[in-house]
Give the backbone structure.
Amino acid sequence: MNANKIPDIIIGRLPVYLRALQRMADSGLKTTSSQELGELVGVSAAQIRKDISQFGEFGKQGTGYAIVYLIEKLRGILKVDKIWDVALIGAGDMGHALAHYQGFANRGFRVVMVFDNDKSKIGKNVGEFTIEDTAHLVERIKPAGIKTAMLTVPATAAQSVADQLIQAGVKAILNYAPISINVPNNVKVQYIDPSIHLQRMTFYL
Amino acid sequence: MNANKIPDIIIGRLPVYLRALQRMADSGLKTTSSQELGELVGVSAAQIRKDISQFGEFGKQGTGYAIVYLIEKLRGILKVDKIWDVALIGAGDMGHALAHYQGFANRGFRVVMVFDNDKSKIGKNVGEFTIEDTAHLVERIKPAGIKTAMLTVPATAAQSVADQLIQAGVKAILNYAPISINVPNNVKVQYIDPSIHLQRMTFYL
C-alpha cells in the first residue's frame, strides 16, 4: 500500500466508515455488510467495497465484514490505533468547547495542552488544563513530540501561530480560524468553518 | 446555469474563494488575479479560473477580477446575498460556542433560536437567546420559515431531532453530532466532527 496512490477522497471516507462501525460494535453487532454500512453512512455498497478493497481483502462474500476486525484494520490504516496528543491554540468559546469535547475519546486523540496569548486567560483553567502562554508554544510542543494541533485563534493570528506550530514539528493542523493558511507540503491542514459549511448547502436551496 | 450540472466539488470551493475575497476587500484591495487568489487559498490559478467561469465571465484578461464585483456574484450564486435564519439544536458546550460565534456575521447567517431537551437548561439564556424546549421545535421553526439548522445534540438524539427538523421544513442541516443521519434527497447535510477531520490527516503522518 502506497499512501500516495490512494485518492484523498477515499481516505476522507474511511473515518466515516470507522465511526459507523464503532457505533455498530457498541450496540453489540458482530458482522455487517457493505449494504448495511452503506445505508448508515449514505454511500453505495459498491463504493464501500471498492474503498475498503484498496487496502486488502477484509470481507468475505456471503458473510460480509467482521466488525471488530474491520475496525482494527481501519484504525491501523488511519494510524489511530494509538493516541495522538493534540495541542489546542486559542482558549475562546470554541477552544473551551474543544477542551471539554468528549468525542475524542476512543477515536485516537486527546488534548494535552491549551495555549492562548491573552494575559487575562494565561494561568486560568479550562477543564483539566491550565492555559499556557502562546509565546512558549514551540519550547513546549517540540520536546513533547506533539504532531497534531487545533487552531481556534482569530483569523488575523492564524498564519503566525501556524508558522510556530510548524517550527515546533506539528504535521497536522485542524484550523477553526476563518482563513486559509499556508503550510509546507509535508504538513496537512483540515478546515472547520461553520459559515463555509452552511454556504455549501444554501447554493442548493 | 443549472445547479445540478455544477459538480459539488466546485460548489464546495466557492465559499473558500468568497471568504478570501472578503478578507481582501476588508484590507482595502480593489482587484485581484487568479494567481493571487490561488496562493491565498491553496488552489491553482487555472482551477480558480475554471471554477469561476462555470458561472459566467467575471474577470478580464490582463486586469483580473474586480473584488467587490466578484464577491457580489459569488454571494448571489451561493444565495448568501440574504441572511438565513438558523435554528441551533443542542445547548451544550459546542452549542454555546456557536450561539456566541462571531463568524456568521456578514457571511449570510444568523442564529435566531436555540433549543435543548434538558429541563435544567430550558428557559436559561445563552448569549442573547433563551433556550427553548426541543419538544416545541416543529411548531416554532415551521411558521418562522427557517430552512437551515445546526445540530449539536448527542449522537443518540441526532436522527430523531433531524426528523423533526425536516418535518419543520428545514432543508439544510449542519450536523455536529458524531453520527451520519438519513435525510430525504431534497435535504442537504454537512458534517463537522473534529475526530473525523483529524483522522483524515493522521493517515498521512
Q: What stands out?
A: Chain A has a mean pLDDT of 94. The first strand of chain A starts at residue 31 and ends at 32. Residues 84-197 of chain A form a domain with the Rossmann fold fold (CATH 3.40.50.720). Chain A has eight helices and eleven strands.
